[in-house]
Amino acid sequence: MESYSRRWFLGAGATTLVSAAGLTACGSGGGSGGSGGGTVTAMVYGDDAVKIQTQAIDRFNASAAAKKTKGSIKLQKIPASDYPAKLRTAMGSPNAPDVFFNWGGGSIKAYQEANQLIDLTDTIRTDSVLKDGFLPSVLASGSLGGKMYGIPMRGMQPVMVFYNKTLFAEHKLQPPTTWDQLLDINAKLKKAGITPFALGGAEIWPELMWLEYLVDRIGGPQVFEKIKNGDASGWGDPAVLKAAETVKQLIDDGAFGKGYSSVGYSNGGAPAVLAKGRAAMHLMGSWEYPTQLGKFPDFARKELGWFAFPQYEGGAGDIRNVVGNPTNYWSVNARVANKDAAIAFLRDCASEAYTKDLIANGDVPTTTIAEKMLDSSPNPEYARFQYQMVQQAPAFTLSWDQAVDPKWSRPMLTEINKLFVGKSSPAQFVSALKGLK
Q: Of 326, 331, 434, 436, which is most buried by a Cβ count within 10 Å?
C-alpha cells in the first residue's frame, strides 16, 4: 500500500511547516556543534520501514565507531501521520533532535533558513564513504541552494509509466519512447474502447506527475530548478505553458476517460482501473508495484509492465531524467553536541548491511553497491529497472509539492486541479502560479 511517507506534503505537512521566522535556533542538549561525546537523538518517521533504522542503530551502538566517538544513538519513533507536526514542534524547542528524517527540498527549507542545519557539503566531499556511497542524482536532490543537507537513508521512489501487458499484446502495442508514439497508442486504444491512462484525479498529486514530467521533457530540469529556488517568475517559462497545453490536449482527447476526477488512488481506485483492464497505462510512483501486488497479486506478477516517460520531440529534457521522490534523508541539527558520532552513524547508510536490510524490505536502495545485490529483491527485474533508471539519470527532480516552499505547495496544487477539471485554461494556470508570493 502507498506509504504516507511518500506523499506527506498533501496531508499534515502542507500546513505544519512554518516559515523560518517561526523557528528558534534552540538545540539538543545545549550543545554547540562540538564532539565531546554523548548520546545523539535521531527522530524518525515511524512506519513499517523503521525497523531498518532500528537495526542500524543497534549496529552502530555496538560498533568501534561508537566507542571512538564516545557516542550512542537513541531513536525517537514518531507515528506516521504525526511526524511533520511533531518535528516542527521539536525543532522549535530545547529538545530538538540531533538527527532527523525528512524529504529534502521544501521540507527542510525553513530549518535551513533558521540556521538549524549543518551544511554537509564539505563533510560529504572529503569522506569517501559518503561521497562515493550513493547515486549522485540522489545525493544532489538532498541539497538546497547548491549545498548538501541530507544523507540518503531509505529506498528510491521514481515515477514511471506502468502498463497492462495483456492489453498491449492484444492490440499489438509496444512501450513508446517518444511522445508521438504515445499519442498514436492513445488513439488506437480509444478506438478499441479502452481508456489510455488511469488517473486518480480525486486526489491532486497523481495529476501533478504529468506536469512534472512534461515540464522536464519540454524545457529540461533547469526550468523547475529556478522555481524550486523561490523564483516565481520561473512559472512563466514557455515550457510550463506548453506542458499545461499538452495536459489540456490529453484531457480533451479522452486520454484519462471521463470519470477520472472521481477516481482516487489511496483507496485503490486507479490501481483497479489498470489491473481490471479498463485502462492500459498508469503514470505513478514506484510504489505502484507493491500496491498492485497487495491488491491484485496475479496481475502484478504476470501482467504488469513499466517503462520510462517518453521523450518529447523538440524538447530540451533528456529521456533519462527522472521525477519523483529520490529518497528520504537524514539531516543534522546545527546544535548537535556530538557531531562525530552523528556523522559516523550516517556513514552506516552506505554500508552493505544497511543496503541488504533495505532490499529485504522490498526497497531499492540508493547506494552505489546496491545493484549487485538486487537479485535478492522480491522482484529483481523491477528492482534493477528502477535502480538503473535512477543510476543513469542526469537529473532527478524532487516532486514539486515537496520541493517548493511549503507556502506555495497548496496554492500550486489547487491550480493544478483547476487545470485538470477544466476550471482554468493553460494561460490562466501559468498566470496564477506566476502570482505566488
A: 326
DSSP per position, 60-87: HHTSHHHHHHTEEEEEEEEEGGGHHHHH
d(CA 74, CA 51): 14
Between CA 234 and CA 225 the distance in angstroms is 9
Q: What would the CATH number be for the domain defined by 4-156+328-384? A: 3.40.190.10
Nearest C-alpha neighbor of 334 from the set 21, 24, 87, 18: 24
**Interhelix angle for 352-360 vs 50-61, to 10°?**
160
**What pLDDT shows up at residue 17?**
38
Helix (H) or strand (E) holding 151: strand 151-152
DSSP 185-211: HHHHHHHTT-EEEE--TTSSHHHHHHH
Q: What gap in Å lies between CA 205 and CA 219, rounded to an integer?
A: 21
How many CB atoms lie under 10 A from the CB of residue 191?
9
pTM: 0.87
Scanning the structure block, which residue is given the C-alpha cell 521533457?
217
The strand ranges marked E within 294-333 are: 304-307, 322-325, 329-332
Q: What is the DSSP string of 361-430?
A: TT----BTTSGGGGGGSSSHHHHHHHHHHHHT-S-EEE-HHHHS-HHHHHHHHHHHHHHHTTSS-HHHHH
pLDDT on residue 230: 87
Q: How many CB atoms lie within 10 A of CB 123?
A: 17
DSSP string, 342-375: HHHHHHGGGSHHHHHHHHHTT----BTTSGGGGG
What are the structural domain ranges in the chain? 4-156+328-384, 158-323+405-434
Confidence bin at 308 (pLDDT 50/70/90): very high
Axis crossing angle, helix 339-347 with helix 50-61, rounded to the nearest 10 = 120
Question: In CATH, which of 3.40.50.1110, 3.40.50.920, 3.40.190.10, 3.30.70.260 is domain 158-323+405-434?
Answer: 3.40.190.10
Residue type, 386: Q
C-alpha angle with apex 277: 276 to 278, nearest 5 degrees? 95
Residue 182 CA to residue 203 CA, distance in Å, equals: 24
Cell of 378: 522480491
Q: How far apart (Å, rounded) are the C-alpha atoms in residues 189 and 376?
A: 37
